[in-house]
Design goal:
heterodimer, A: mainly alpha, B: mainly alpha, 0% strand
Chain lengths: 293, 326
């Protein structure tokens, strides 16, 4: 670890009293805290990735760094392991969720941000209430519903459920972004003779773009990571999503840890990239929604 | 009414929110038909109503029925009153296993998540831009780890025959792999689950609290420091009062999440119900309802969990509103 050569958090601006110099003991404590938090945060990620790249993962190699660097686990998982199929299924369900949920949430967000009518607060209360209901409690009625419609093993049914799960939060986040767009722009477009759909598409849509990106990432991750409904609705191996498919590598003869970790790495990496890209907006949206409530 | 918009600031007597303030809602009278907002809302309402609200009502209705595989095939409604609940409330699984495993586990997880997250946020505020950037990215990596893969990694690390922790302990002579199995011991099992849940949950707390800390005026903290107030007093007398709403949100959300932890328990060895000592309310409901096809009974367990969650969160919210009035 390199030494920290920083003084305080804020950049010193004019008009501020000059920064108090930190004592060496304080610097040491900060450096120690930094090392501890860093290690704790990335330890599981490190274990996962290094096991995934370890060709001897299943021969009792349990080193923190790969003893035999190879892509063998990945090629097995994506070939014989059938994980490529699961990735495609998850991708399809995830993108479908993003598109449907994004469109419905945007329409609803425009309604609650732009018009005055009774249901506005109801919608916001609904978002909070949905947070409070354990969604796992809904697995029993939804299983009955889906199976009586003959839709078990249907990725579409799974996607529809994920749309419902991600909608309340998506509406909550998008509402703020829509409200920030000046209505005058819409009026100007309207007076220029633009139709409603056209105005929606060419005025509002581009302006709430950043908000849509953040919301989409959230919805995608919801679908991508979901486990309970995936294992309940799907029992046909061709239809497995990644979260359900990982269980294939646990057999009665033992666990194929190399494949489990390679699969886990394939699941985790896209999510991590998305997360680090939109983390600022995601947390702002959460805080804003929470404090506003 | 003209189409000229008169901006009157109604946010003045409310807490300033960090996001863009909502402009006063407007009626485009003459410009927009009255049915338009409803048309915009309709699709979302249909989905939420059909897939969240209706199933939730259905859980309550199932909980007073004897609903099994036969009803699933043929339909029919076998009202049994509160038999399911009577059976749950007289079942030792509830009192000795599922309830303690749910409540104690959630309490420990919430306390640890909030304390660890807050400490990390306080550290982040002090660090310079470079160190803060590195640490934020690492925390994001922890947050982004899906529950499924995160759980598998912890199971792998604590694997009793050959995991890293066991190797370390046995080389130090502190544990014997031949006689120890952490996944059959309730306390050890839930300790590992706690580590998993705290690791997964502290980043949200850290990032949210950090956003709040950045709104605490630095001048006040600095002058308090010059007056000789220690870090501890500065936190409790200046930072904490300003941050109260943020802490409230973080505690309430963590509580909700930690009460209904399912995947992290279900995926650990024995957690899916093969070892009944390890059941919590979520996995118990799933075991009875989905695995054993006693849908009514499983729904009744889910109702118990939902009511418990509502009770806990409403106590929180009432305390909050009371404090606001003071």
């Amino acid at each position: 670890m390199s030494t920290l050569t920083t003084t305080g958090a804020a950049p010193v601006t004019t008009g501020r009293p000059p920064k108090v110099r930190k004592r060496p003991a304080t610097r040491l404590a900060e450096g120690l805290g930094f090392a501890v938090v860093l290690t704790f945060s990335i330890f599981p990620v490190l274990v996962m990735v290094s096991t995934a790249f370890d060709g001897r993962a299943n021969d009792g190699s349990r080193a923190l760094l790969p003893s035999d660097l190879s892509f063998a686990n990945f090629s097995f998982v994506l070939g014989e392991g059938g994980f490529g199929r699961y990735l495609l299924n998850s991708l399809a369900v995830g993108l479908g969720t993003v598109l449907v949920s994004g469109l419905l949430a945007l329409l609803a967000a425009v309604a609650v941000a732009r018009f005055r009518f009774r249901l506005r607060t109801t919608v916001l209360v609904l978002v909070l209430v949905v947070q409070m209901v354990p969604l796992e409690a809904l697995v029993i009625p939804l299983f009955i519903q889906v199976s009586s419609l003959g839709q078990l093993n249907s990725l579409i049914a799974l996607m529809v459920v994920y749309v419902a799960f991600s909608l309340p939060f998506a509406i909550w986040m998008l509402r703020g972004f829509v409200a920030a767009v000046p209505p005058e722009l819409e009026e100007a477009a309207y007076l220029d003779g633009a139709s409603w759909p056209r105005m929606f598409w060419s005025v509002l849509f581009p302006l709430v773009g950043p908000g849509l990106v953040a919301t989409s990432v959230f919805s995608f991750i919801t679908a991508w990571n979901e486990f309970v409904f995936a294992i309940t609705f799907l029992d046909d191996e061709d239809k497995f999503t990644v979260a359900a498919g990982l269980r294939q590598f646990f057999t009665q003869y033992g666990t194929d840890w190399g494949s489990v970790m390679a699969g886990s790495t394939l699941i985790t990496v896209p999510v991590m990239i998305f997360f680090i890209v939109v983390q600022k907006r995601l947390s702002e949206g959460m805080v804003a929604g929470a404090v506003k409530g | 009414m003209t189409t000229q918009q008169v901006v009157h600031d109604d946010t003045a007597h409310r807490d300033p929110a960090p996001a863009a303030p909502t402009p006063p809602p407007r009626r485009h009278r003459g410009l927009t038909p009255g049915w338009l907002p409803w048309a915009l809302l309709a699709p979302a309402l249909v989905v939420v109503g059909g897939l969240l609200v209706y199933p939730l009502l259905w859980v309550f209705s199932l909980s007073v029925q004897d609903f099994g595989l036969r009803e699933l095939r043929e339909g029919g409604f076998h009202w049994t009153g509160f038999d399911n609940f009577a059976e749950i409330l007289t079942n030792s699984t509830l009192w000795q296993t599922a309830l303690p495993n749910t409540v104690v586990f959630a309490a420990v997880c919430v306390a640890l998540t909030v304390v660890v997250g807050t400490l990390v946020a306080l550290l982040l505020v002090r660090l310079g831009p470079w160190a803060r950037g590195v640490l934020t990215t690492a925390i994001m990596a922890a947050w982004a780890m899906p529950a499924v893969s995160g759980t598998y990694v912890w199971v792998y690390v604590f694997d009793t025959s050959d995991g890293m922790v066991m190797r370390l302990l046995s080389s130090l002579g502190l544990a014997d792999p031949a006689t120890t199995n952490w996944f059959t011991d309730r306390l050890a099992f839930y300790a590992i689950a706690t580590l998993n849940v705290v690791h997964h949950g502290f980043p949200f707390v850290a990032v949210t609290v950090l956003a709040g800390l950045l709104t605490v005026p630095k001048e006040v903290l600095e002058s308090a420091a010059i007056d000789g107030a220690g870090a501890w007093r500065r936190f409790w007398h200046i930072t904490y009062p300003i941050m109260k709403p943020i802490f409230a949100v973080v505690v309430v959300l963590s509580t909700i999440w930690d009460f209904k932890v399912f995947t992290q328990i279900y995926l650990m060895p024995g957690g899916s119900g093969t070892d009944r000592d390890l059941l919590n309310l979520g996995t118990w409901s799933y075991l009875e309802g989905i695995s054993q096809n006693r849908f009514g009974y499983g729904a009744a367990v889910a109702v118990v969990l939902t009511l418990l969650l509502l009770a806990v969160t409403s106590v929180y919210l009432r305390t909050l509103f009371k404090q606001k009035e003071l």
